[in-house]
Specification:
Elements (H helix, E strand, L loop, with lengths): L1 H20 L3 H15 L5 H5 L4 H19 L2 H13 L6 H13 L10 H12 L3 H15 L6 H12 L6 H22 L2 H6 L17 E2 L12 E2 L21 H22 L6 H15 L1 H7 L5 H20 L1 H10 L4 H16 L4 H17 L5 H13 L8 H8 L7 H33 L1
Antiparallel strand pairs: 1-2
Helix pairs in contact: 1-2, 2-15, 4-9, 4-13, 4-14, 4-15, 5-6, 6-8, 7-8, 8-10, 9-18, 9-19, 12-13, 13-14, 15-18, 16-18, 17-18, 17-19, 17-21, 18-19, 19-21, 20-21
Length: 457
């Protein structure tokens, strides 16, 4: 018992130390896993290293490389421009369009990549008379929904960890749950922040606001969410204009971009087709295959995509899961599950785990929470009283929907990109309330709609 508790204390202590020193959590976790495995568990070093999740590494590297090519050759910019141009002055549709665009970009490997829509969206909101809070939440919910796609980080970590533990969780089911929940939250944002007024004034051009110099736009590092960093002010590097481009202003798709779009549709279509035929698609291998084809079409963009591979997140997830493997060998995870079961009511234990996921994720790395909490919840699943797929879906989504808190990278970026500086204190206040509300609403909503029916049926 002493060894298990000591290992768990070290596990939590590494999280705290990384936060205090602003150090890379994955590197510290891997070193700590080696120390605990050798010193406390007396494990051979080969067994410790074997816990590093090579399958998840292949997924992350393959997916971020493939979509890195789409970013490098400008395909993403062309898709954004085409979508915005079709909306025109129908302002009521703009938050929905930004939800879809952000979800699409977030689904391309790195969830924080969706934050490239923040400067554009907040500028469009200012020019079109849309409440910045509504636009911020449309971007935030879109990012959360897309992040659980089978091709994106949160989805990869969540279903990858579940499947490694023997829990039958379909990537498409996880994605569908995230999309539905975030659409419900977007609908609530429409009700609370001026959606009905936009509907009444739909199609009527808004009075343009005072233009803001491009130097005041905010750009975002679209790297992995393992190491959150505040947004910084600089000249926007997005190729998309805050104004909705007209047909004559849009650049046509090049041959390489058309090939990239075909490859993107092919990747998604292959994943769906294999899943529907009860075969588990190896998304990382598929991404490498389609990426290899694009490399032959466009070698220059492929070279530029190499630095976009999300190595920091690979290290983050790998270090945490390696330590979790040591904890499992020691028996600390089983002990944690026994303590959770002592709550008496499995439903309360599920609510407690989801509450912890949301509360900690509002201030820390969502990826880290997913990699740590999903394995710790497995003993509760093993008891047979809780449906595993439902609980893991609930943990994942609860950890993500709080990310609009201004204490996280997503929320801080949304506040920083608000055009009207006088609105920023209001945005900070409202996003704080929304994020903290999700800490409570998320577990009740997810456990009530997924776990409870799964226990009854």
């Amino acid at each position: 018992m002493t060894i298990e508790l000591t290992a768990l204390v070290i596990f939590v202590g590494v999280f705290a130390l990384a936060a205090l020193r602003n150090a890379h959590l994955g590197v510290l976790m891997f070193a700590a896993a080696s120390g605990v495995g050798l010193g406390l568990a007396h494990m051979p070093i080969d067994d410790i290293v074997a816990g590093f999740p090579v399958d998840i590494l292949v997924l992350l590297v393959g997916v971020t490389y493939f979509f890195g090519i789409a970013h490098a050759n400008g395909t993403i910019d062309r898709i954004i421009e085409a979508a915005l141009a079709r909306v025109g002055h129908r302002r009521v549709l703009l938050p929905i369009v930004f939800f879809l665009l952000t979800a699409g970009i977030s689904a391309m490997g790195s969830p924080l990549g969706g934050l490239v829509m923040a400067p554009i969206g907040m500028m469009v909101a200012n020019k079109r008379g849309i409440d910045p809070m509504l636009m911020a939440l449309s971007i935030g919910t879109g990012l959360s929904a897309g992040a659980f796609a089978p091709t994106s980080l949160f989805g990869i970590v969540t279903y990858g960890t579940a499947q490694r533990a023997g829990v039958d969780l379909s990537p498409l089911v996880l994605f569908a749950v995230a999309v539905v929940i975030n659409l419900l939250l977007l609908a609530a944002a429409y009700v609370l922040f001026g959606g009905s007024q936009l509907l009444r004034r739909n199609g009527v051009p808004a009075t343009p606001a005072t233009p803001v110099p491009s130097e005041q736009l905010v750009t975002v590092d679209s790297g992995g969410p393992g190491a959150a960093a505040p947004a910084h002010e600089s000249r926007s590097h997005s190729a998309s204009s805050p104004d909705l481009p007209t047909g004559s202003e849009r650049k046509p798709f090049t041959g390489n971009q058309i090939a990239t779009v075909i490859a993107m549709v092919g990747l998604v279509g292959t994943v769906i087709a294999l899943s529907l035929t009860d075969r588990k698609p190896d998304i990382g291998v598929l991404a490498f295959a389609f990426g290899a084809v694009l490399t032959l079409f466009d070698p220059e963009s492929a070279k530029k995509a190499i630095p976009r591979i999300d190595w920091p997140t690979v290290l983050l997830v790998g270090g945490i899961i390696t330590f979790v493997g040591v904890l499992d060998h020691i028996g600390a995870i089983d002990m944690f599950g026994e303590y959770a079961s002592h709550i008496g009511v499995p439903l309360l234990a599920a609510l407690f785990i989801c509450l912890v996921a949301g509360l900690v994720s509002a201030f820390a790395s969502t990826t880290g929470m997913l990699a740590a909490l999903v394995p710790l919840a497995l003993p509760l699943v093993a008891s047979g009283s809780i449906p595993g797929w439902a609980l893991i879906c609930a943990i994942g989504v609860c950890a993500s929907i709080v990310d609009v808190s201004p204490f996280s990278t997503v929320g801080a970026t949304l506040v920083a990109t608000t055009v009207d500086e006088g609105q920023r204190p209001r945005m900070t206040r409202l996003l704080t309330r929304w994020g903290l509300a999700m800490v409570a609403v998320g577990p009740v909503l997810l456990v009530g709609t997924l776990v409870v029916p799964g226990m009854v049926l």
